[in-house]
Amino acid sequence: MKLKSKIVKLIIVLIIFSYPSFIVAQDSTKARTRIDSFSNASGKFIEKEFIHVGNINGIEVQVFKATDVITNTSLAGLHFELNYASFGSYRTGIANLDEDEVDGLIQCFKYIKSNVLSTKPDNYKEYNYISKDNFKAGCYIQKKQRGWSLFFQLDEYLSSSLVEINVGDIDDLIELLEDSKKKF
User: pLDDT tens-digit profile of 4-15?
Assistant: First the structure.
């Protein structure tokens, strides 16, 4: 009887502690962007094309075009990809932005350039752009530190997917994002 009771308790504990992981795993596989939903739709014959735009500190930036070959309808967006070390192995972080999100990302970095980088706040401060795919971009400054840091984070759950971008490269970054729109 006691052994059976211990086994039941162990099973309950395992279920309780594994359930949040199951939810996170389910959520992370769900398509959040229109281009992901469209390009992975069942019952469709989809052509996927990735057009290289440039690199930002190890992050490859591509225009992602998906076309339904039968109906000739298509969507486009930005595709970010980064290979990074995580927990002793290498992973590939991927984030997609729908075409309508790209202007918001560009405006984010234009705002940072014009209104943020010249300030020197006394406390920790950050500015975040968060896409439908939970891709993050923005800047932060820590109290009494070297200055502002720009960043991209492809995987919301892993800090190792965070890439800092040199503040001096902000014009090149904005230009790269604007150039990508011409390839949609």
Answer: 665 655 455 445
pLDDT in tens, 128-168: 999 999 999 999 997 666 789 999 999 877 788 899 999 99
Which tokens go with 40?
């992975």
The dihedral formed by the CA atoms of 96, 100, 103 and 105, expressed in degrees to the nearest 10: -30
CA separation for the pair 83, 145 (Å, rounded): 28
Q: What stretch of H or E contains 54?
A: strand 46-56
Give the burial class of 150: count Cβ atoms within 10 A of its Cβ; 0-12 exposed, 13-18 middle, 19 or more buried: buried
CATH topology of domain 34-181: Secreted effector protein pipB2 fold (3.30.2450)
Average pLDDT of the residues of the chain: 86
Kindly state the helix (H) or strand (E) to which residue 99 belongs, with its residue range: helix 99-111
**CB-count burial class (<10 Å; 0-12, 13-18, 19+) for 122:** exposed
